[in-house]
């Protein structure tokens, strides 16, 4: 299947690719795929392509999002502006293809998990903050695949060769780090489904555990599914870990677009 590319800015990294199910097939939901790579330009949207190809066969429309990363103009605030604008630009593609965006889930791996959960809390950000404002495309649910969900802990552990400071810079600006941290937005008003591998050495399981513990303690809906495999098992179609991700996407789609009760 050949995706359709949409530019949402002038930079070469400001684009997304739309994958659609076969003509006439029912659309299960829309998935915004946000790739990882510790926010570095070494890694790109090609990481999301196998996920989109698998999910589109399962009836999902997929928006595989690229964005500026550290090393190619990204970081604070560019990456956050790109993710917000890139998700909102999905509305343009949806209008062209008649997609219903009510059941839209953000799916993010690693650093993309961080960005997906951050994006779901955009409406709570202070005015003037990168990405703040009422989203054009709201995210009724999020699925995080081994996401970096606790930036303070990640920074203290120096994960990814100091990836957090490389991404955000300004180590003496605690407000920047607070606004970028998904932990600061707890409790989110939407469900967050978290999938993490037991043998993940790139992003430790504690990242997901600490987020889910904090969210549930504040009354939010957050669920952790621990799966076999390493950091990449959750983005490997055909693996048991990936099937758990697909199940989480199904729950997310049902949450965002519940089936009406049968009456009569």
Feature tags:
alpha/beta, 9 helices, 35% helix, disordered C terminus, 264 residues, single chain, globular, Rossmann fold, 8 strands, eight-stranded mixed sheet
Largest sheet: 8 strands, mixed
State the end-to-end distance: 43 Å
Count of runs of 4 or more consecutive helical residues: 9
Sketch the topology as an H/E string, one letter per element: EEEHEHHEHEHHHEHEH
Low-confidence stretches: 259-264
Fourth CATH level, the homologous superfamily:
Alpha/Beta hydrolase fold, catalytic domain
What is the radius of gyration?
Answer: 17 Å
At the fold tier of CATH, the topology name is Rossmann fold
* Derived structural class: alpha/beta
How does this structure look, described?
This protein is α/β, with parallel strands linked by helices. The chain has one domain: 3-Layer(aba) Sandwich (Rossmann fold). Helices cover 35% and strands 17% of the residues. It is built from nine helices and eight strands. An eight-stranded mixed beta sheet has the order 1-2-4-3-5-6-7-8, sandwiched between helices. InterPro entries: AB_hydrolase_fold, BD-FAE-like_dom, GDXG_lipolytic_enzyme. Keywords: Hydrolase. GO terms for molecular function: hydrolase activity. This is Alpha/beta hydrolase.
List the helices and strands and how they pair.
Blueprint: E1 4-7, E2 15-19, E3 29-34, H1 49-57, E4 60-65, H2 78-88, H3 90-97, E5 104-109, H4 111-120, E6 141-145, H5 151-157, H6 159-168, H7 174-180, E7 192-197, H8 205-217, E8 222-227, H9 240-256
Parallel strand pairs: 3-4, 3-5, 5-6, 6-7, 7-8
Antiparallel strand pairs: 1-2, 2-4
Helix pairs in contact: 5-6
């Amino acid at each position: 299947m050949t995706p359709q590319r949409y530019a949402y800015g002038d930079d070469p990294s400001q684009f997304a690719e739309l994958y659609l199910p076969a003509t006439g097939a029912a659309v299960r939901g829309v998935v915004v795929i946000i790739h990882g790579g510790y926010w570095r330009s070494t890694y790109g949207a090609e990481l999301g392509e196998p996920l989109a190809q698998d999910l589109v066969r399962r009836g999902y429309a997929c928006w595989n999002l690229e964005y500026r990363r550290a090393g190619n103009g990204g970081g604070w605030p560019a990456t956050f502006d790109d993710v917000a604008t890139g998700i909102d630009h999905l509305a343009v593609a949806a209008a062209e293809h008649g997609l219903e965006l009510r059941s839209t889930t953000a799916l993010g791996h690693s650093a993309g998990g961080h960005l997906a959960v951050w994006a779901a809390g955009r409406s709570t950000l202070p005015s003037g903050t990168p990405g703040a404002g009422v989203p054009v495309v709201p995210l009724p649910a999020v699925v995080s695949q081994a996401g970096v969900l606790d930036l303070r802990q990640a920074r203290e552990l120096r994960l990814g060769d100091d990836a957090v400071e490389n991404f955000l810079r300004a180590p003496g600006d605690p407000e920047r780090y607070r606004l970028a941290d998904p932990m600061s937005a707890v409790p989110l008003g939407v469900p967050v489904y978290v999938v993490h591998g037991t043998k993940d050495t790139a992003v430790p399981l504690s990242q997901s555990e600490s987020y889910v513990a904090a969210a549930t303690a504040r009354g939010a809906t957050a669920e952790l599914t621990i799966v076999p495999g390493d950091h990449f098992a959750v983005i490997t179609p055909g693996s048991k870990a990936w099937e758990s991700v697909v199940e989480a996407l199904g729950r997310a789609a049902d949450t965002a677009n519940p089936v009406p009760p049968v009456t009569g």
